[in-house]
Design brief:
Helix content is 73%, strand content 0%. It is built from nine helices and no strands.
Length: 182
């Protein structure tokens, strides 16, 4: 069995993840085979199966890593729901990981991940601002803000980051503030 955190294991998993992401740029995961992942990564099937049961478990590992790193980025978020600097910092992280986010946020087959990240961010915000939900209506406002912000980020990724992250952060920040002030 592979040691979980030794350098070779970490490097092997990174190569397998990169290979899957490269394949997912041109085809859905349901059409990707272990053989294709192994050929692209120049690894044997036995090496693949030492770490993962199938391509879906590999994708789940990628998604979990993205969520973990997303929350590391959100850890700096202050008590303001939509701190401009926090949004800009997160957008820079998205841009630095454009392939991963392009696949996970922009491809329709990854709706489960998109819903999962929305739910996780919602829980995170509620832990920072526990009194945010004063009534049932505010949950709808929050949902509008979250999905609107996500749509702006998806459009930004799809347009190949045509404006600087700071400009998009300002758009998201001001849009959220306008909705919050009702």
């Amino acid at each position: 069995m592979a040691t979980k955190n030794n350098r070779r294991t970490i490097l092997t998993k990174k190569i397998l993840k990169d290979s899957l992401l490269e394949l997912m740029q041109s085809k859905p995961i349901a059409k990707i085979t272990i053989k294709e992942i192994c050929n692209l990564s120049d690894m044997s099937r036995s090496t693949f199966y030492l770490h993962y049961q199938d391509q879906y478990e590999l994708l789940e590992d990628i998604e979990n890593e993205v969520l973990e790193k997303t929350f590391e980025n959100l850890a700096d978020m202050d008590t303001e729901l939509n701190s401009l600097d926090s949004i800009d910092f997160f957008l820079k992280y998205v841009k630095e990981n454009k392939t991963t986010f392009g696949i996970l946020l922009c491809q329709s087959e990854n709706k489960a991940f998109q819903q999962g990240i929305m739910n996780s961010v919602q829980k995170h915000v509620q832990s920072i601002i526990p009194a945010y939900y004063e009534n049932d209506k505010e949950q709808y406002i929050y949902t509008f803000i979250m999905y609107g912000s996500l749509s702006m980020i998806v459009d930004w990724i799809n347009s190949d980051f045509n404006i600087p992250s700071r400009e998009l952060a300002k758009l998201i920040y001001h849009s959220c503030n306008n909705v919050m002030t009702k």
